[in-house]
Specification:
Helix content: over 70%
Number of helices: 10
Keywords: DNA-binding
Number of domains: 2
Pfam family, one: TetR_N
Largest sheet: none
Shape: elongated
GO molecular function: DNA binding
CATH class of the largest domain: Mainly Alpha
Protein name: TetR family transcriptional regulator
CATH topology of the largest domain: Tetracycline Repressor, domain 2
Distance between the termini: 53 Å
Structural class: mainly alpha
């Protein structure tokens, strides 16, 4: 009998956890739809609760603010990016192809949410803004994003100088952010300008990476390393 009771308790706990997870996911999905449809600034937590058909208190129980909902969006998007990247990395050892896949896949994941991401981008350069990619709140996401690039590099067939390999993932992440902001303001049909930007910037970047193996390039590596250290934000 005690064993039977333990099983019943565990089943009850599992059902309770599942229901909580489902409610949290419902609130999250509702919020993302409203952010895109009504606008991030216009949407309120009360509107999200009403649309999700849950109480306002329950909404705040799962997410303390709209910022928390956006951070959850970033986390879920990055989780999917990691999943797809891992699959793609199995098909090629070419670092440039892997890095391009990371960039283009991220943009594809963001495509249906461009409207509210444009609003968030207005304050992206302010590291005190919680949703900035340079904020302390987003540090774990930032390091994870750099980690995706580092993994793509370390497991590729590209041979790099040891000193360059230490800073290259950070440099490429900064480039990736630049392309993302360019895409957010790209008015061209089917984002042709962004596609051209990706092609040309990656072509130039990987030519410079090849040149870095030459002794003459050592003279410029010091300033590059210093710039990376200055650009990195620590909480």
């Amino acid at each position: 009998m005690p064993n039977s009771m333990n099983v019943q308790v565990k089943l009850g706990q599992t059902k309770s956890f599942t229901k909580k997870a489902q409610t949290k996911q419902k609130i999250f999905r509702t919020a993302i739809v409203l952010f895109q449809k009504e606008g991030y600034e216009t949407t309120t937590m009360r509107m999200i609760a009403k649309e999700a058909k849950v109480s306002l208190g329950l909404t705040y129980y799962h997410f303390q603010s709209k910022e928390d909902l956006v951070l959850e969006f970033y986390k879920s998007s990055q989780k999917e990016l990691i999943r797809q990247s891992e699959q793609f990395f199995k098909t090629t050892k070419d670092f440039k192809a892997r890095y391009k896949f990371i960039i283009t896949t991220q943009l594809e994941l963001f495509t249906h949410h461009k409207k509210f991401l444009q609003v968030l981008a207005r304050q992206a350069g302010d590291p005190t803004y919680p949703l900035s990619p340079f904020s302390s709140e987003s540090e774990s996401l930032r390091e994870e994003a750099v980690g995706i690039i580092r993994h793509a590099m370390m497991s590729s067939n590209t041979k790099l100088r040891e000193d360059l390999s230490k800073v290259l993932p950070d440099l490429l992440w900064m480039q990736q952010m630049g392309i993302l902001f360019f895409w957010l303001s790209d008015p061209s049909k089917s984002f042709q300008n962004t596609k051209l930007m990706i092609h040309d910037s990656l072509d130039l970047t990987f030519k410079l990476i090849k040149l870095s193996n030459f002794p003459l390039f050592k003279n410029v590596m010091g300033p590059i390393f210093r710039m990376v250290r200055l650009a990195k934000f620590k909480s």
